[in-house]
Amino acid sequence: MPKTNVPSYLRHKATDQAIVILRGKMFYLGKYKSKESRAKYNELIAEFLANNCKLPPTRTRKEITVDDLALKFLEWAEGYYVAPNGKPTASYGHCQIAMKPFIQHYDKKAVSEFGPLSLKWIRDKWIEQGLARKTINQWCAIIKQAVKWGVENELVDVEIFQALDAVTNLKAGRTKAREYRDIPPVDDETFAQMCAVISGHSHPPS
Questions:
Q1: Which H or E element spans position 102?
Q2: In this structure, are residues 178 and 132 in contact, taking their beta carbons and an 8 Å threshold?
Q3: pLDDT of residue 157
Q4: Of 22, 127, 157, 176, which residue has the fewest beta carbons closer than 10 angstroms?
């Protein structure tokens, strides 16, 4: 009787999670070398071998859609980006803006269908709208962050994030995206007037 090769307990370096690969599909087990990950590995292997080295239907995860991931991410962001007064910070507002085209254009598609070219397409739309290069880079980073959050919470396969992360930031002088307007330094006389206004000894020029 041929010997069955038991799939190995492995470490995924990018996330420091333990993984096991069954029939070409990667399963995340939790933090590498943790008791929980070892227990989950043993459970998966036992189930896999008992099913004649086939993936049981219970282990076939339904792919999450773009809108579902975006909404879950925003729910997390709303609770995370909070000022001391209990109100959402500007970072949460940026998350909302970045998620808008993500949902609007990809909606019910599986996140696995959203690749580097999809992200670059959204980026090109922002360039066409006249947004500044640094703003576009920031919002692209938020989309990547949403997908990475999905990986962290076992909603998205890590390969999807790794592919998106290959999209580099727009470089100054290498893109049609505009730059922020450079603001020259304030001259000494104006600076002195501003200080006087702040201290209450003068009024701003009319």
A1: helix 90-106
A2: yes
A3: 86
A4: 176
Band of the pLDDT at 117, cuts 50, 70, 90?
very high
pLDDT tens profile 175-204: 999 997 654 554 556 555 555 544 444 344
Q: Which CATH architecture has domain 62-206?
A: Orthogonal Bundle (1.10)
Tell me how far CA of residue 197 lies from CA of 46, 90, 183, 188, 206, in angstroms: 75, 29, 21, 14, 13
105-116 pLDDT, tens digit per residue, is 998 889 988 999
**Cα(103)–Cα(67) distance, integer angstroms:** 5
Q: Which residue has the higher pLDDT, 159 or 126?
A: 126
**Residues of each domain in the chain carrying CATH 1.10.150.130:** 62-206
d(CA 77, CA 67): 15
What average pLDDT score do residues 26-45 get?
86
In this prediction, residues 147-159 reach a mean pLDDT of: 89
Is the Cα torsion angle 146, 76, 67, 16 positive or negative in sign?
positive
CA-based nearest residue to 40, from 63, 13, 22: 22
The 17-22 sheet, strands edge to edge: 10-12, 17-22, 25-31
> What is the token pair recorded at 120?
């670059």
